[in-house]
Amino acid sequence: MSGNVSNVDGGTVFAAVDIGASSGRVILGRVHTAGTGSSERIVELEVVHRFPNAVVEIDGGLRWDFDALFAEVLKGLAAAATVAAAQGEQVASIGIDTWAVDYGLVNKAGELVAQPFSYRDDRSRAAVEPVHRKLDPARLYGTTGLQFLQFNTIYQLASEKNLDGLHALLIPDLIAFLLTGQRRTEATNASTTGLFDAVAGEWATEFLSALGLRKDLFPPLIQPGETVGTLLPEIAAQVGLRQDTRVVAVGSHDTASAVAAVPATADDGGENFAYISSGTWSLVGLELKHPVLTEASREANFTNERGVDGTIRYLRNMGGLWLLSECQRTWAQEGFRPELTALLTAAAALPPGGPQINPDDSYFIAPDNMPERIRAAVRRTGEILPDDPATITRCIMDSLAAGYARTIRDAERLADRTVDVVHVVGGGSQNRLLCQLTADVTGKKVVAGPVEATALGNVLVQARAAGAASGGLAELRALVVQSHNLQVFVPELSRL
């Protein structure tokens, strides 16, 4: 459920700043009873501002135009203030989530010294080997539990030339700093840096020292639900919010917020679920109480990242719908602009058993003529993929579903857990072909939705901090189930 509704529980609303690698939104969230005479509580969202986000080439590298991004955040908060005021509501707090690993460098005066690099820039590749000469990969994994990706923060920082007098602020923390003046590092995002102890839940300071980095390079840690600070006077005046409006730490890594809103219930397996946060990337894994730091887990390239309430997001970061969106961008440049629904319908009509690619291949990370890259990858397997959008789309969908199935099987084995149901959240939950293929290949029931899981997780953590929601993750997830119509896909073996 979503839309423009009154809050029957006192006029308190929450602003979620939710930014992905290709777009961002500012969303108002309301937690209230379903209606007169009802005791059922639901959470609803209203998007008040949307804006694009993209990697740009600046000073010879791929960077984020952070100044433009922050200006859009301010526009969104101003829109949130206007919409809330028109309905007699008050924005109680602001929560921020974005993608992981990237950071901005801020000097003592609080100035951003350069636009932040994007993880899609190739600069960190050369830093991997020097880091591994100082810190053996097995030792790194045994402490951090982090999946090896060449763009992890640890390798990005190792490529920096001079960090004297600077703080590294991860992107959501950088936004929070500019809003409040307070420098903090939220824990779920800190766990993606490669410099965080997965067991202790603290910075792995010995790794910082081994790489010649200051132990205070990152600001102190803060947990989801804690208050970063209140708005700076000039920010409050600019956006039209009260100066005492709090900025609350949420699962600032967008996947942490998304997993917090996975609608898992005791009726469909309780803890025995896998999740796929499907968007630009695919985050596929399990929710655990303790990290898995075995050598077998490292060899399988699984990551152990923090979730809300101290949980462990045991997952692999896989290729995602970036492959399709980049294909669409190339086709549009060539004058072909098919509707996504028509494209997927045409792909679904094709017979199974076509060529597949490895969607995790680093060959697909950078933007550039994705259809031809995919066809070239298929040629390297000895097969031929026609230069046809429907066929290429089907190849992407089959490849993603097969990758999901492999990853879930590996996670079950490595974590000694049996999965009963797969939850797909995020944009990919609307992709009926991908959800059905995932059910077919995994042989498990797939529950699709909600699309806005990240924003829901963001809002629910804020609501709990304000007393508008209560309980642990099970209770927060019950609100999601009560608030949304979910789609169920069961395996159709005849499709394989």
UniProtKB/TrEMBL annotation:
GO terms for molecular function: transferase activity. Its EC number is 2.7.1.-. It holds the Pfam family FGGY_N. Gene3D superfamilies: 3.30.420.40. It comes from the Bacteria. Keywords: ATP-binding, Disulfide bond, Kinase, Nucleotide-binding, Rhamnose metabolism, Transferase. Residues 274-466 form the Carbohydrate kinase FGGY C-terminal domain. Belongs to the FGGY kinase family. This is Rhamnulokinase family protein. The lineage of its organism: Bacteria, Bacillati, Actinomycetota, Actinomycetes, Micrococcales.
